[in-house]
């Protein structure tokens, strides 16, 4: 069976999802989990796009050992140089260059002739090759490009040193048979095609990204690009967990293997959902809450008689645990440490102490602490960048009743150490708290999105809230957990404001290149 390489772009194309912006520590946690999941390559970002992206790519390149780390670059020397600066510490660095080849993009976006595009691509692939052993070149909008032009430019960039040729369906426009035909055409019409690996990269605008990726593989692609949970620009990218499980379950039809450890699927999906705030719908294939639920009596009866009657994927295959009860009030530091180890999460001694305190506080209110709770606590602690100069909630109180106006009183510690307090009303408790916080915080705030969900089930489950705020006109996301929904909501709100403060402090998002 031939081996298909899995190229994950959650941290680059996935991070381009509207409303997603991960900080460096969050990116690092996702990168470590992708390494555990066993992806062959991870695209860590687009270093020339901002200082923050550069630093995150560098941190990932310096940390990840068993997966090739790659970065996106336009076909311009300065992007290639910046990518090299970010990636040179990596164990297996590679670069991903892209240039559009469709008439629409060349005419209206690039304002270049096909000949100019060809020359630029060849020149920049040769330039990148001086630094990188592995050079991937993508023909952006390949699926709407002229096949003959595509064949010619591919031949030339392979001669210039490209080792991977990616043919993206940038706008999610193609169909499985059409996309498959494009790969077949290149296999048959590019004389040196065997000197490079062919890669597919599909967007999901028409809901066909996974099907298109599999069609590409049937026609010669040996690398599949995609994201965890299918997040990405617009309707997202091909969902890697769906691709991986399809290849596994239909191994009779697809004679290919991957290096993925499928039992890490669920955890990878959960982590990405938690840190991006993009939760998967209940009926999402492979990782949705209902993916293994059998509702109808006939189905339940069949599964009880023989699981294979209605179950083609087992929960165990993708690491879904049904029985993950772990610690309680009487669990001590040792049991806690052992459990963290068992979860496979590396935490410094200092952060372990903070996590243990949070765990102890939780056990005051919650009898049984599950793997999911623990994972939530650990990720909160691991990705917290707001230890200095932050707004801190010292106390809040909400009066709510169906017969009176919800009123919140908040006592807040400001970054310069003052304690400030006020009270406001709202239509509901959350609005009352948010209006009070808004009153106390000097920044100009606008709430764009608000979500609340529970971690696992049960009446005493942890509440998790995600918000998106505009702070002084800049969009920032925030995340907060607590046992109470109002407290979780307040924490998420403050977390967004504090992230903004940190961002201002480090000038992290100083955009260098915005035009592609
Ligand atoms: O969809 C696309 O074309 C891309 C390229 C940058 C490869 O993401
Ligand atoms: Zn893309």
Automatic annotation (TrEMBL):
The keyword Transferase applies. Its EC number is 2.3.3.13. Keywords: Acyltransferase, Amino-acid biosynthesis, Branched-chain amino acid biosynthesis, Cytoplasm, Leucine biosynthesis, Manganese, Metal-binding, Transferase. It catalyses: 3-methyl-2-oxobutanoate + acetyl-CoA + H2O = (2S)-2-isopropylmalate + CoA + H(+). GO terms for molecular function: 2-isopropylmalate synthase activity. Its cofactor is Mn(2+). SMART domains: LeuA_dimer (SM00917). Residues 392-516 are annotated as: Regulatory domain. It is an enzyme of class 2 (transferase). Gene3D superfamilies: 1.10.238.260, 3.30.160.270, Aldolase class I. Belongs to the alpha-IPM synthase/homocitrate synthase family. LeuA type 1 subfamily. Catalyzes the condensation of the acetyl group of acetyl-CoA with 3-methyl-2-oxobutanoate (2-ketoisovalerate) to form 3-carboxy-3-hydroxy-4-methylpentanoate (2-isopropylmalate). Homodimer. This is 2-isopropylmalate synthase. It comes from Oceanobacillus kapialis.
């Amino acid at each position: 069976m031939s081996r298909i390489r899995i190229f994950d772009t959650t941290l680059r194309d996935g991070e381009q999802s509207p409303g997603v912006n991960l900080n460096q520590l969050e990116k690092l946690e996702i990168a470590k989990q992708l390494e555990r999941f066993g992806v062959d390559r991870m695209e860590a970002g687009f270093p020339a796009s901002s200082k923050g992206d550069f630093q995150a790519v560098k941190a990932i390149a310096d940390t990840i050992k068993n997966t090739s780390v790659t970065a996106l670059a336009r076909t311009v020397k300065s992007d290639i140089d910046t990518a090299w600066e970010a990636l040179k510490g990596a164990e297996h660095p590679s670069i991903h260059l892209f240039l559009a080849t469709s008439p629409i993009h060349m005419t209206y976006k690039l304002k270049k002739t096909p000949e100019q595009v060809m020359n630029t691509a060849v020149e920049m692939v040769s330039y990148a090759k001086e630094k990188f052993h592995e050079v991937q070149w993508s023909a952006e909008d390949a699926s709407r490009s002229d096949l003959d032009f595509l064949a010619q430019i591919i031949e030339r960039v392979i001669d210039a040193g490209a080792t991977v040729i990616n043919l993206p369906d940038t706008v999610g426009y193609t169909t499985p048979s059409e996309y498959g035909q494009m790969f077949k055409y290149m296999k048959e019409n590019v004389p040196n095609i065997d000197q490079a690996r062919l890669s597919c990269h599909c967007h999901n605008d028409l809901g066909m990204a996974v099907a298109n990726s599999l069609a590409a593989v049937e026609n010669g692609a040996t690398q599949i690009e995609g994201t965890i949970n299918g997040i990405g620009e617009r309707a997202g990218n091909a969902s890697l967990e769906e691709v991986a499980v399809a290849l596994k379950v239909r191994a009779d039809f697809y004679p290919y293997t991957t290096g993925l450890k499928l039992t890490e699927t669920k955890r990878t999906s959960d982590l990405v959902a938690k840190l991006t705030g993009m939760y998967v719908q209940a009926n999402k294939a492979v990782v949705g809450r209902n993916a293994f639920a059998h509702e109808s009596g006939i189905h339940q009866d069949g599964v009880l008689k023989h699981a294979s009657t209605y179950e083609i994927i087992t929960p165990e295959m993708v690491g879904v645990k049904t029985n993950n009860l772990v610690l309680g009030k009487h669990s001590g530091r040792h049991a806690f440490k052992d459990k963290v180890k068992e979860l496979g999460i590396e935490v410094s001694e200092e952060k372990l102490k903070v996590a243990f305190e949070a765990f102890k506080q939780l056990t005051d209110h919650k009898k049984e602490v599950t793997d999911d709770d623990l994972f939530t606590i650990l990720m909160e602690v691991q990705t917290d960048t707001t230890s200095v100069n932050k707004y801190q909630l010292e106390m809040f109180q909400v009066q709510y009743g169906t017969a009176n106006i919800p009123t919140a009183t908040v006592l807040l510690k400001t970054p310069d150490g003052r304690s400030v307090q006020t009270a406001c009303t709202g239509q509901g408790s959350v609005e009352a708290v948010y209006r009070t916080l808004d009153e106390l915080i000097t920044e100009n705030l606008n709430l764009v999105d608000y979500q609340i969900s529970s971690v696992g089930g049960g009446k005493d489950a942890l509440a998790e809230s995600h918000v998106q705020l505009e702070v002084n006109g800049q969009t920032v996301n925030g995340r907060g957990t607590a046992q109470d929904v109002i407290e979780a909501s307040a924490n998420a709100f403050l977390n967004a404001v504090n992230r903004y403060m940190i961002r201002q402090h480090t000038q992290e998002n100083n955009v260098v290149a915005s035009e592609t």
